[in-house]
Batch of 2 targets.
Target 1
Amino acid sequence: MNVEQIKNVAVIGAGNMGHQIAALLAIHGYETRCMDTDRKVLEKAETFFTGYLDKQVNEGRLSEKEAQKAAAKLHVTQDLEKAVVPADFVIEAIVEMLDVKRKLFSKMDKLAPKHAILATNSSYIVSSKIADATSRPDKVCNMHFFNPALVMKLVEVVKGEHVSEETAEVAYQLIEKIGKKPVMLNKEVEGFLINRIVRVIRFEAYWLHEMGIASIEDIDSACVHGLGHPMGPFRLNDLVGLDLTYTMATEKFKSTGNPVDLPYTSLVKKYAQGKFGRKTGEGWYTYPNE
Ligand code: NAI
């Protein structure tokens, strides 16, 4: 398959990441089916998309006609079969849990056309850990978007040993077609490029905070004013979701058994309190209007 043959795409999981990835694909003309098990999440995704398109029209970035065309391209469903059976390309964006992802990929493998590529948006898990749950490991790769996906340019594509040249190339070109900036990793490594770098900063920030060396606000302010980062590690953690950070750490610990990979105490506390960041109205900071 070459990139021009991709007409139908499926995005599985319509949460923080999936709803924006689906919107992006629909705006770029792909017949997009966005699936989630949670009806409310799908309703929220639809409301978001309508509001987003209205804003694009009001601000002159899209014409009325283009917005209508994009709106007609996005379909939401709770039915995996409906989403995946017609898909040339699938992007999975469900919870960051290896066993759940493996089960999903095994199901999708049975439903998707033989030529379809199955990509995962996982933040951390390399696709070789998922690919062997399918009969097409050469067509399973990482395609890692950043949050918020409609805004952030970068997408990491990972060409693990099991991934064919064709799959990596098509994934890379699809990213270019939807106006993003792909980078190719020639070997698998957990966390890819950016999350490995960010993880070091985040762990250091947790440590500085837990040692009482500076406040959350001042640690964030130091990164913004001293490093030129658009936001500090705690603010970024609220955007990404503390639940995801917690799950990533526990999943990593499960695979390494190394106590340094365990989540920091302050993160465990927030997680236990259900303070996941912007999505719950409170994380390291509070968000009364979200
Ligand atoms: P989320 O928790 O906001 O959304 C996950 C969605 O998946 C939920 O709506 C849930 O109902 C749905 N879901 C769970 N199991 C499902 C299944 N079997 N079939 C269909 N839907 C299912 O999670 P978020 O933050 O969007 O993350 C999704 C993926 O994207 C994860 O792998 C994460 O590592 C990755 N990612 C997250 C980023 C972030 O900043 N939050 C950034 C880049 C990647």
Target 2
Amino acid sequence: MTAPKPLLILGIESSCDDTAAAVLADGVVRSNVVAGQEAHALWGGVVPELASRAHQEHIVPVVHQALREARVRAEDLDAIAFTQGPGLMGSLLVGACFARSMAQALGIPLIAVDHLKAHVLAHFIRDFEASPAPSFPFLNLTVSGGHTQLILVEAPDRMRIIGTTLDDAAGEAFDKGAKVLGLPYPGGPLIDLHAQRGDPSRFTLPSPVIAGLNFSFSGIKTAFSNLVRKGQESDPAFMERELPHLCAALQHRIVSALLANLRKAVHAHGIRQVGISGGVSANSALRQRATALAADEGWELFLPPFAYCTDNAAMVAMAGHFAHRAGQHAALDVVPVARW
Ligand code: KG4
Ligand code: ZN
């Protein structure tokens, strides 16, 4: 007897500066390809025009590679999921047009995915290692370059935002702090790296005081640039000498603000299944401190493996997997949405 054919979903992600494609078979990763874009490092942020041009160059080879590595023929796919938004319109258009055309050519369903829901559903991606997934309902902290959200996740397609940032996103706070220090974009991973040799208590940055479950990072950013500017004025070698300590202080303050609200949310909702996802969930201090907090408070904590923290298409395919099973398909003339 032959085994039943697995559900094969191709995911395509192009919302910002990573062109990604992945194939999932019954929710298990068969391939996960990401082509980053170095063009933005020099500019201190993503340049939309450069991003869409690079997506245009990358999309065909990235999708081919994902199918080849998965050992799947395009004709065997059951559905194609793509990121509909939010993101940069020029970038989203590349993935959307490609996915629409491919689904039409193959005569298979198309699934339009919300990038932020995909970050949450990254917890359900099964890799080669058996990784546990949260059960519903759970609380998720989504921390990326564009968003910081506390979400009550009731079902794969039922998520309620219970806290959000009033200004910058957590990833943006890392990236802007890195820019002050003259580090290239994206600065988050570099802050993480330098902070490992730093003392987080050498400099003190203010804690934001915000009622409820919302976040604010702009005050931390302003205090950080003032600290660096004043230090440089009194000693031109300040920044270079203090780099690890400055990175550690910034990281400490951002992570503390994130965990304080996550803890408040757990207490307010009485839900002890807790996930953290999005690019900033790759941060080593956030992972360590969240793990320690979860142990202290008796939460079950879910952190995706690194490959599924930052933008990737496996999470888009995972969202597609849930949507396909629920019969939630998009029309072939579906358009991207830059802001929800
Ligand atoms: O989820 P993501 O790849 O893209 C968006 O949807 O925005 O997140 C990118 C963000 C960037 O701001 C980047 O600096 C940050 O995640 N990031 C980190 C780390 N790795 C990525 N921030 C702090 N520490 C890290 N290790
Ligand atoms: Zn993202």
